[in-house]
Amino acid sequence: MNATPQRRFAIAGAGLLGRLTAWHLLRDGYAVSLYDAGDLDTPPAAAWTAAGMVAPLAETVVSERSVYEMGQMALDRWPGWLAELQASELWHQHGSLVVAHPQDGNELIQFRRDLADTLGEGALYQELDGSGIHHLEPDLTRFRHGLFLADEAHLDNRELLTRLLGAIRELGGECHAHTPVEVHPGEVTTPTGTHHFDLVIDCRGHGAKTNHPTLRGVRGETLHVTTNEITLTRPVRLMHPRYQLYVVPKPNGRFVIGATSIESEDRSPISLQSSLELSSALYTLSPAFAEARILEQGVNLRPAFRNNLPQVTLSDGLISANGLFRHGYLLAPAVVEHLLSEIRGHGDNPFADLLDGSAPRRPCRESE
Ligand SMILES: Cc1cc2nc3c(=O)[nH]c(=O)nc-3n(C[C@H](O)[C@H](O)[C@H](O)COP(=O)(O)OP(=O)(O)OC[C@H]3O[C@@H](n4cnc5c(N)ncnc54)[C@H](O)[C@@H]3O)c2cc1C
After folding, report:
1. How far is CA 177 from CA 16, 36, 182, 295, in A?
2. Transmembrane residues, as ranges (predicted)?
C-alpha cells in the first residue's frame, strides 16, 4: 500500500491555464483546490473572451519562431486532450483562410513576406484564386486572392472551459468562485483567511500583475454576432492596412469577430469606433452579415511580458505560469506540459529552457 500522503495543490485563477492544470493534476491523483476571483460558469478570464483559434502560422507573422514551434505541439496535443475529455467535437482542424480586397493586395504580399522572414521560404500555405476561395468557403464571393493555411485549427473555447470545469468537479476538485486570492509560497490568502498547501500554482493571468511588475495587459475587443445567412467552416482573416479582422465560426450560426490589439489596460466596454470598424469590415467580408444580430461585445486583457512570450517561474512552494498574450490556446499545451513535468519531476519538454527563461531569446516583431 502506498503510504505517501496525497500532495495538496492550490491553483489561483480558473482561466485557461488554471483549468487545464487542475484537470491534469487531478487525473494524476493529487488534491486540487481551484480559486477564481470571478464566476466559474461565465468567467472574467481572457480565455472566455478569446476566439479560440489555434493558428501557428498566422500568429508567427506577429511573433517569433518559437511561437510557431510551440503551436505545432498544440496541434498535436489538443485532439488527444479533447478525446480524453470526451469533447472531440469541440476541435475543428479545417485550416484558416487569409484574404484581402483587391485594393489591399499588398497586405497579403506583406503577410507572405513576414511568414518567410520567420519560417523561411516554402512556408506551409497555399495560394488561392477566387475559385479556390469559393471552393473552400462558398459564401465568400468577393475575393480574388487569398492564402490557405491548411494545418490551422479552432476550438469551441467556451464549451471547452465548461467541460473542463465539469471534469474537475467530477474528479473531486474543490472549486471556489468569487474568491480573489493572494499567493505566497505554500499558501493562498482569501478574504476569509490563509490556507496552506504543498504547492501553489499561480495562473491568474493579468490578475497576477502585483507579483510580476513587468506583466502588462493588452486590450482586445470582440463582437459576437449570429446569422443563418452565411456559413463559414474555418476562421477567416481579412487583411487591411489599419487592422486585421478575424471571424471565427462557432456553433449555431454564431461568429466571434475581433481585430484590435490595443496597448491599454482599460477594461471598459468597446468603443464606438472599434465597434464601427469591426462591423463595417465584417460587412465588407460578406454583405450577408448585414442582418446579423449582435449578441455580445467583449473586452479583456491579454497577459503579456515585455517579449510577448510565456514564462514559467519556479520557487519552493510556488510556481507561476503567465504571459500567454494573444496565443493562449496555441501555447497552453507547451506551458502546461512544462508545469506538469516540473511537478511530476519527470518528462522532457522541448521548450523548458525557453519557458523558464534560460534560453537566449530572439527579438520579436511588434504586434499589430
Ligand atoms: C479578445 C481576445 C481574443 C483572443 N483570441 C485568442 C485566440 O483566438 N487564440 C489564442 O490562442 N488565444 C487568444 N487569446 C489569448 C488568450 O485568451 C489568453 O492568452 C489566455 O486566456 C491566457 O490564459 P490564462 O489562463 O493565463 O489567463 P486567463 O484566461 O485570463 O485566466 C486568468 C483567471 O485568473 C482569475 N484571477 C485573476 N486575478 C485573480 C485573483 N486575485 N484571485 C483569483 N483568481 C484571479 C481571472 O478571473 C481569470 O479567470 C485572446 C485574448 C483576447 C482578450
Report:
1. 15, 5, 14, 25
2. none
Q: Which residues pair with 31 in a beta bridge?
A: 8
CATH architecture of the domain formed by 8-54+157-215+306-355: 3-Layer(bba) Sandwich (3.50)
Q: Is the CB of 326 under 6 A from ligand 1?
A: yes
Q: What CATH class is the domain 96-150+217-304? A: alpha beta
Residue among 62, 64, 229, 254 nearest 157 (CA): 254
Q: For ligand 1, atom 23, which residue shows the shortest CA distance?
A: 16
Ligand 1 nearest atom to the CA of residue 208, by list position: 38
Specify the residue with its C-alpha closest to ligand 1, atom 1. 220
Q: Does the C-beta of 327 come closer than 6 Å to ligand 1? A: yes
Q: Cα separation of 32 and 12, whole Å?
A: 11
User: What is the C-alpha to C-alpha distance for residues 153 and 146, in angstroms, rounded to an integer?
Assistant: 17
Sequence-ordered list of residues with C-beta below 8 angstroms from that of 119, at least 6 positions apart, any chain? 57, 60, 65, 68
Length of the chain: 368
Q: How far apart are the first and last CA of the chain?
A: 57
User: Cα of 9 to ligand 1 centre, how many Å?
Assistant: 21
- Report the chain (368 residues): mean pLDDT per 10 consecutive residues: 75 98 97 98 97 95 91 98 98 98 93 87 85 97 95 98 98 98 97 97 97 95 97 96 91 94 91 91 95 96 96 94 97 97 86 78 39
16 lines ligand 1 (CB under 6 A): yes
Q: Is the CB of 13 under 6 A from ligand 1?
A: yes
- Mutation pick for ligand 1 pocket among 324, 330, 336, 339 (CB with most ligand atoms within 8 Å): 324
